[in-house]
Amino acid sequence: MLKVKNLSFSVSEKGTDRNILSDISFDVRSGEMLVITGPNGGGKSTLAKVLMGIEKADSGKVILDGTDITNYDIDERAEAGIGFAFQQPPRFKGMTVDKLISLAAGEHKSEAECCSLLSRVGLCAQEYVKREVDNTLSGGEMKRLEIATVLAKPHKLCIFDEPEAGIDLWSFSMLIQQFEEIKKDKEQSLILISHQERIMQMADRVMVIEDGKVAGIGKREDILPQLMKQGPSCCSYLKRLEDM
Known about the structure:
GO molecular function: ATP binding; ATP hydrolysis activity; transmembrane transporter activity
Mean pLDDT: 89
Protein name: ATP-binding cassette domain-containing protein
Pfam families: ABC_tran
Keywords: ATP-binding, Nucleotide-binding
Domain ABC transporter: 2-236
């Protein structure tokens, strides 16, 4: 479904190029849930942004359902069927929640439809549907709203960058339920960037990114025990529910 071939990305700092991603190759199968984990600063979020077209790769290819989308911009990739949820969702002063959901869906959504989506991510719908997407919303509220906008439209592939960040345990349980439903339907593929062990336990496969490279990829039941066995220095980035 998704094939990533030899993807590399660098940034220039004071005239010197610094590699952020180096020769990344992997695939995501139809209906599969791939969780990407690894130490902070390893390149996970950058990889997600390159896949969405927010950043442009220096080299390599991104192929979606047999179509080379390497040169597609963010709008074209969204149109092709990729959804994206930021780790830190943007705010839009003056825009109401229902309007944002309609924009994300690409069509007008009724208040009832918006409320249904908000309820799915643990927000009290009637209290939020007409609120502005501004600084009056907390980080956790923004994260859940961001995920609701992704759920507003069917996608071939959804990318979630640390969906558990900044939310409470009850909201986390609601999100887990949504991911389980998407995974069960097998109609959309999922890439989740996460440090949360509970999310990794849901994965079909886990990929570890360290220093901008693929340090390991395989079935969840093979990769997670390896991480645990390697000791605190290698798995300190894994977080359990009690750490939230």
